[in-house]
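Q: what does this look like with pyrazine-2-carboxylic acid bound?
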Amino acid sequence: MNTTAALLVVDAQYGFMPGGGLAVADGDAIVPVINQVAPLFANVVLTQDWHPANHVSFAANHPGRQPFETIALPYGEQVLWPTHCVQGTRDAALHDDLCVPQAQLIIRKGFHGDVDSYSAFVEADRKSSTGLAAYLQARGITSVYLCGLATDYCVAWSAQDARAAGFEAAVIEDACRAIDLDGSLERAWADMRRAGVRRILSSDLA
Ligand code: VGL
Ligand code: ZN
């Protein structure tokens, strides 16, 4: 088994599955695909979107604003989301059917009330590190395979930041689903390609 590779399972939480606060169409279809590829990895890291109820990314915390509008924040443009993945709620829990017992680390992100964090590596202010790059480097990991939700937000930002931190990165497309807000999915694939992120299928791994 390749000990220099890690599988990064992004936000496989009820909040992004059908019925969740920020439901992604067909989001639960990724769970069996992740369960199928995970045994190929000795190193697995999970992320968990983990917001306080007063989080700046929630439309409900901006009177008169609606979900999916954007606002300007000190660090840049922010999409306003429906309330999702509030700390300690069922919405924030990882899907019960996810089977990755060998996972070694769960990175929780988006816990600062005034900063969002799509990326598992760096928060949306582009300054605050989650510590993940240093952790992976300390473990001798050189390549990161990404799956989870959502392709065009947390997966895409994490993949590009993995490249920026010097890792090889590949997104397992059929182990992801997208929000696809105003063409965000096509833009995300173009941005990832430019950053040197590989686009693969679970069948490419075996
Ligand atoms: C995500 C929007 C807001 C994601 C998280 O996991 O892609 N998207 N919070
Ligand atoms: Zn979020």
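The beta strands are 5-10, 43-49, 70-73, 76-79, 105-109, 143-149, 168-177, 198-200. The two ends are 11 Å apart (CA to CA).
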